[in-house]
Structure to design on (905 residues):
């Protein structure tokens, strides 16, 4: 087991290094840089060159990459040109906001999708058909559309704030009812398509498990059907969902970027978008690296979950 | 100015009877009776006092219905890059600067006239090179420090300092030359231009006056470029503007409180701004912005509304939730231009026609501007035939030819250019801008029946700007916004050496005779002190431009702005920020 987790950790570190390096090189190769973005199209070439020198952007790709690599080894990920703060201070602030959103969405999706999947996988009838149809619809709907739909509903009903994380004047840290109100729209926008995916997977898995001989034997012994479904068949049926949890975290992150922009949630996605627009190279690298950390952590979580539901996979 | 009406009424001039002529007294006595006449001044005084009391009951009224107090929420699309106008040119940074800083003069966005601001009056020397500005007295920064001529001199030093690398340095020049500034006394500054500059103090509308006592040490140590960055405590951002920065929540909002030291007063003498608080919510998505406006969660947007948003907002306006205003035709039309740099297509078989005037004339004839307006702007646009739109009445040439829609004439021109046909070129435009993408498609569709194939490629804005500033393009359809309505303040577009001379940027010498002619005309136009002469010269510039059509224009959009019904005293303008340009006089219903 120790060897297993050591291998996973090494893979995670490699993933973060590869993603960060690629994002630095790609940002450097993209047209424009922080100097041109901040001074604008009308600026004279001489002014832009002076700004490039001041920001250290006139160095070669190799020199900048080597410099970044050296500092990253000391856990110094550079200074944001846009915010004039160390990247390692900025990332955790916004990553925490994204984590709040992502974890809430994941929990909601699990609480909605899994029970509905068990329901539709264990019985037939009009209710199951309605749930299946709704799932297929939501599954086909990208997070951009669901977030637009959610803010539209929020605007029309007036029940919930449409955008942002907190209202003006509310403390920017800590739990509050205001935070929960602001969380509903973006979390549901993320959670509903995921819940649909969980429902479909769980439904299929439940149906498969309920066809196993041990279920028939258990029924023959007179155990009530509901106990079979919710106790005996549930754990084996969770294997499908547990195996994709890592992938879900990855899609959750990319989906949250879109949702964060539409709902003005101040998370990592918004930060990365602003950094890309401003060509703030070190901040882009930091955000990409943080994203890779999320995916690596999600993959590890997926393996742990799979080991729990199916101990055979942990050996 | 500055005396309240109440004060005037309390001091009736010439009314005490003892000072009236005998004939007047006799007349009054005959009309009113001796005792009534003697009581008349007292009566007038009583009435005046009653009126003053009524005024005093509403001490904050500047005009009927306006009361001081309340807050307003506006939306902006992006985060500011800095709190300093010197460091960045994005629209949010500019807005922060407009709210917290003040200028020497202000261009009224509705009338387009220059208004005294921190400078209350100015004179120009006979040679047109020296402007002497008298500054308002008794003005203080938001921290209480007095504003003097030294702050003006400091500001110019700051923008021209090479270590600062200011975003304003290039725009605060006249004919490419820096302006010399000296303080004559604590309330008088003299601006000295290297050459006569007719636009004069209008240039100063771009320049926020900075506090020397706060930023002086940063300038001296060469760190001004990083001063007032986003991590600066809001209380450190000191200014002369109507508001002070109270809070910045990254990714969420900027909060501004009224500046109690603000120097401007309403027409009745009451202090400005009317609002106690102004909040800028950062809302990157336009759909969310519109929904929030309709739902009443924000009071206004910083920018104009897109044509496709008009219908839902019209419904909201009809229901009384928002006010929808047609501010008029914009000053800028999106532009189509080709790469006219000599030798840009050397070795290319299309070199014979791609840079010819006739190609651009043919395109202008081929596109039906009415259809273009309907397709791109859903009908909410006016035809445009030149760089000066009908909104800019002062400078628009009355003789601008209105190119008719004539596909047959266009076809004849194209056949003469390429008798064997097969004309094809790539048109770059900005990805994500619906008006530009639709416009490029409309151009492509108009040329296709004439045998011209247009490959439209939509690029990210940075990539697009990089392509045409480096000369690696064939044709571009983009939005090049003029910085001012006065052509003298857009030298980079008109002069061949300009950084915004789109079709052939930053030429060392004019590549063509007509560009040399425009250079000479513009040099005279900028220097002439006679407004009529300037107009005549600029008409000639537009004539030459129309003859060679280096840039083709099709339609100038109408600018619609929407704001909450609780907002009062809004003065919508066609340039951004359409409503917040006069934030100090905005009020809300209580």
């Amino acid at each position: 087991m120790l060897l297993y987790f050591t291998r996973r950790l090494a893979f995670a570190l490699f993933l973060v290094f590869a993603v960060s390096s690629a994002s630095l090189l790609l940002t450097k190769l993209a047209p424009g840089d922080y100097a041109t973005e901040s001074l604008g199209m009308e600026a004279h070439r001489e002014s832009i060159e002076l700004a490039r020198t001041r920001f250290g952007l006139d160095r070669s790709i190799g020199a900048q990459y080597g410099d970044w690599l050296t500092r990253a080894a000391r856990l110094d990920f550079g200074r944001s040109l846009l915010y004039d703060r160390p990247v390692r201070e900025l990332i955790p602030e916004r990553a925490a906001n994204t984590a709040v959103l992502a974890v809430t969405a994941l929990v909601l999706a699990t609480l909605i999708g899994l029970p509905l999947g068990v329901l539709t996988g264990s019985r037939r009838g009009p209710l199951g058909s309605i749930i299946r149809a709704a799932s297929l619809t939501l599954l086909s709907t990208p997070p951009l559309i669901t977030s637009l739909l959610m803010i539209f509903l929020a605007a029309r009903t007036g029940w919930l704030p449409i955008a942002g994380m907190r209202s003006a004047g509310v403390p920017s840290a800590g739990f509050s009812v205001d935070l929960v109100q602001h969380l509903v729209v973006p979390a549901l926008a993320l959670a509903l398509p995921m819940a649909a995916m969980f429902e479909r997977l769980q439904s299929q898995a439940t149906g498969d498990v309920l066809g196993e001989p041990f279920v028939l034997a258990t029924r023959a012994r007179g155990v009530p059907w509901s106990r079979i479904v919710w106790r005996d068949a549930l754990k084996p049926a969770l294997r499908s969902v547990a195996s994709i949890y890592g992938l879900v975290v990855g899609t959750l992150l990319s989906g949250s970027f879109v949702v964060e922009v539409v709902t003005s949630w101040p998370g990592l996605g918004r930060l990365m978008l602003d950094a890309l627009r401003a060509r703030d190279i070190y901040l882009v690298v930091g955000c990409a690296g943080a994203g890779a950390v999320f995916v690596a952590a999600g993959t590890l979580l997926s393996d742990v979950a799979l080991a729990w539901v199916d101990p055979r996979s942990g050996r | 100015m500055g005396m309240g009406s109440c004060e005037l009424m309390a001091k009736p001039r010439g009314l005490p009877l003892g000072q009236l002529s005998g004939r007047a007294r006799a007349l009054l006595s005959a009309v009113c009776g001796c005792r009534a006449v003697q009581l008349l001044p007292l009566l007038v005084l009583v009435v005046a006092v009653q009126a003053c009391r009524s005024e005093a009951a509403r001490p904050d009224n500047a005009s009927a219905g306006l009361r001081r107090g309340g807050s307003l929420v506006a939306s902006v699309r992006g985060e500011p890059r800095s709190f300093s106008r010197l460091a960045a040119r994005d629209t949010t940074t500019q807005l922060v600067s407009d709210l917290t800083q003040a200028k020497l003069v202000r261009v009224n966005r509705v009338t387009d006239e220059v208004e005294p601001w921190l400078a209350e009056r100015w004179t120009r020397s006979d040679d047109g090179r020296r402007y002497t500005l008298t500054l308002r007295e008794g003005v203080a920064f938001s921290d209480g420090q007095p504003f003097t001529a030294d702050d003006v001199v400091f500001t110019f030093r700051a923008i021209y300092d090479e270590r600062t690398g200011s975003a304003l340095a290039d725009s605060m020049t006249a004919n490419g030359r820096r302006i010399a500034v000296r303080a004559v006394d604590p309330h008088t500054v003299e601006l000295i231009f290297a050459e006569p500059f007719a636009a004069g103090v209008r240039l100063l509308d771009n320049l926020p006056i900075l506090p020397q006592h706060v930023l002086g040490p940063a300038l001296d140590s060469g760190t001004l470029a990083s001063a007032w960055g986003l991590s600066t405590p809001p209380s450190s951002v000191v200014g002369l503007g109507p508001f002070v920065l109270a809070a910045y929540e990254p990714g969420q909002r900027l909060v501004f409180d009224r500046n109690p030291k603000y120097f401007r007063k309403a027409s009745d003498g009451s202090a400005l701004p009317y609002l106690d608080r102004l909040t800028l919510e950062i809302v990157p998505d336009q759909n969310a912005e519109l929904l929030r406006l309709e739902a009443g969660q924000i009071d206004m947007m910083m920018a104009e509304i897109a044509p496709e948003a008009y219908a839902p907002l019209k419904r909201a306006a009809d229901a009384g939730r928002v006010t929808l205003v047609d501010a008029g035709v914009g000053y800028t039309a999106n532009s189509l231009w080709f790469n006219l740099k000599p030798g840009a297509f050397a070795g290319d078989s299309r070199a014979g026609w791609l840079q010819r005037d006739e190609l651009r004339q043919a395109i202008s004839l081929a596109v039906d501007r009415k259809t273009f307006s309907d397709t791109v702007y859903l009908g909410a646009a006016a035809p445009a035939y030149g760089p000066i739109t009908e909104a800019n009445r002062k400078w628009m040439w009355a003789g601008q030819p209105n190119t008719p829609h004539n596909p047959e004439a266009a076809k004849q021109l194209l056949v003469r250019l390429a008798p064997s046909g097969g004309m094809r070129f790539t048109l770059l435009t900005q990805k994500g801008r619906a008006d530009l993408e639709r416009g490029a498609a409309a151009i492509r569709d108009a040329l296709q029946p004439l045998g011209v194939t247009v490959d439209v490629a939509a690029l990210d804005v940075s990539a697009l700007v990089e392509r045409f500033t480096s000369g690696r393009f064939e044709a571009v359809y983009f939005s090049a916004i003029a910085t001012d309505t006065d052509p003298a303040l857009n030298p980079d577009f008109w002069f061949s050496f300009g950084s915004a001379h789109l079709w052939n940027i930053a030429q060392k010498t004019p590549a063509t005779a007509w560009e040399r002619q425009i250079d000479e005309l513009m040099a005279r136009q900028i220097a002439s002190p006679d407004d009529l002469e300037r107009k005549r010269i600029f008409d000639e510039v537009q004539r030459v431009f129309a003859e060679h059509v280096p840039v083709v224009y099709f339609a100038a959009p109408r600018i619609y702005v929407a704001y909450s019904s609780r907002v009062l005293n809004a003065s919508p303008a066609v340039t951004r920020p359409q409503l917040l340009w006069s934030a100090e006089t905005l009020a809300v219903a209580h």
Remarks:
- The mean pLDDT of chain B is 88.
- Chain B touches chain A through 52 residues (CB under 8 Å).
- Chain B has 17 helices and 23 strands.
- The longest helix of chain B spans residues 34-57.
